[in-house]
Write a structure and sequence with these properties.
Distance between the termini: 68 Å
Strand content: 5-15%
Shape: globular
Radius of gyration: 27 Å
Number of strands: 7
Structural class: alpha/beta
Number of helices: 18
Strand order of the largest sheet: 3-2-4-5-1-6-7
Helix content: 40-55%
Largest sheet: 7 strands, mixed
Length: about 450
């Protein structure tokens, strides 16, 4: 069996074997269900023990490259044997995997261990940099200037701080402006964001659902928030752009029913209760074949925390959307129906408006991190029945401050029909209240 690690008495304990073991064991147990959340915190280099580095790297390769959702011991050993067979014997990996497979780690208990492993890695990194400076200070003879001495002491802190941020956080426009404007000249005319199917709305918010950012549509109950989401998903997937629908209220079957009715162009009643004519039957078969081509994913998030929403979104991007050669996420759209408090326990000591503010902040940060657009809906309070001011949004001022656009969905009144473009038949209106990109 694998020998237990024995700490050298002269070395400080700057890693946690138990935390690393728990992390690897959880990956074996849950696989892709937690991997992308784990990888957003821990990298292979954060692990200290070489056997854990090897296993983490192999599991990552099997999940992200070989598309094995839950790698088992056989697939892991086979993968390692193909490129580093000696490590199996050197680190007794077969026995180690057997031992890890006997442990049971709940998926929701993994993140604290990830954070500990990552923080200990930072500590080791900073200590190594400081020790280099200590050695350099030991080589000084006293003839150096005070500034030179201070520079040696300050360098590890500055370098360490720089290592925690992206090198391109600060950009010189002079270095970027030529490529930027060339890309604009070569871009598709008028195509700045993902089109929704509502051209006037797209123009008003700045050219469609632009990324990165959360676009918010507010409405009172039963006005049609969910139906708008289905209509937008239909149009976006026609363009071969993947869509993820996160749903807090409806069911997979009901959303599929709406989507099938829209694509087939027959009534929901006919789809739901059984078609009565041959023509409708043929249209439904055509609609089914069309839906099989569409890149639509659905996940019911009722009762899940907003951290779980982010986890689902992250896994979908890695597994179903993918990345361009330059590392950017391919075009996609996330539809969140809708933004609300799922469980009073999730708020802890926060008020609801504070909690919703934290949710939109995390969604905004997610959009920035992965450079994706999110279309989400929010409930309007009673003043939102007739008022068009920003205060009609139920929840937090941060929703307004962080969203890329805010619009209200309402039922048309009689005078609205006179202002409609010729041929328009819809009975709803979208009022753009605030926009970051629009005119």
């Amino acid at each position: 069996m694998r020998k237990n690690f024995v700490k050298k008495p002269e070395e400080p304990m700057m890693f946690d074997p138990a935390a690393e073991r728990t992390l690897i064991s959880a990956l074996l147990q849950h696989g892709g269900a937690i991997f992308y959340d784990v990888e957003s915190i821990v990298k292979e280099t954060d692990l200290y023990l070489p056997e854990n580095k090897i296993l983490f790297s192999t599991i990552k390769s099997l999940i992200s490259e070989d598309k094995i959702e839950r790698p088992d011991s056989v697939s892991i050993i086979t993968k390692i044997r193909s490129h580093d067979p000696d490590s199996i014997k050197n680190y007794e990996l077969t026995d180690y995997l057997i031992a890890l497979g006997q442990e049971s780690i709940p998926a929701n208990n993994v993140l604290p261990f990830c954070k500990r492993v990552a923080k200990l890695s930072l500590i080791r990194n900073l200590r190594a940099r400081l020790l280099i400076s200590v050695d350099r200070l030991g080589d000084l003879g006293g003839k150096e200037s005070v500034n030179d001495i201070l520079a040696i002491a300050e360098k590890p802190i500055i370098d360490f701080t720089n290592s925690l941020v992206h090198n391109d956080d600060t950009v010189k426009f002079a270095d970027k402006i030529e490529d930027f404007l060339k890309s604009r000249m070569e871009a598709k005319p008028g195509f700045r964001g993902i089109p929704t199917v509502f051209p006037i709305y797209d123009k008003a918010i700045g050219g469609g659902l632009r990324k990165p950012g959360a676009h918010v549509i507010g409405a009172r109950a039963k006005v049609g928030k969910s139906f708008v989401g289905v209509v937008v998903a239909d149009n976006v997937t026609k363009l071969d752009i993947p869509v993820l629908i996160l749903d807090t209220e409806l069911t997979e079957e009901y959303v599929m029913l709406r989507m099938a009715a829209r694509i087939s162009k027959i009534s929901m009643d006919d789809v739901d209760t059984g078609v009565q004519t041959l023509e409708n039957s043929l249209e439904l078969v055509k609609g089914m074949k069309e839906m099989q081509k569409r890149k639509i994913s659905y996940h019911n998030i009722a009762s899940k925390t907003h951290e779980a929403w982010l986890s689902i979104m992250r896994r979908w991007i890695f597994k179903d959307v993918g990345f361009n050669p330059d590392g950017s996420v391919k075009d996609c759209l996330i539809i969140l129906d809708y933004l609300k408090t799922m469980n009073a326990k999730d708020m802890g000591d926060l008020q609801e408006y504070q909690y919703l503010g934290q949710v939109i902040t995390d969604l905004h940060n997610f959009c920035i991190q992965y450079n994706v657009p999110i279309l989400t809906f929010v409930q309007l309070n009673r003043s939102g029945i007739s008022n068009d001011d920003q205060g009609s949004v139920a929840g937090s001022d941060r929703i307004i401050g962080l969203c890329s656009s805010l619009s209200y969905l309402r039922i048309k009144e009689q005078q609205d029909y006179a202002q409609c473009p010729k041929g328009a038949t819809g009975d709803r209106k979208l009022i753009v209240v605030a926009t970051r990109f629009g005119p």
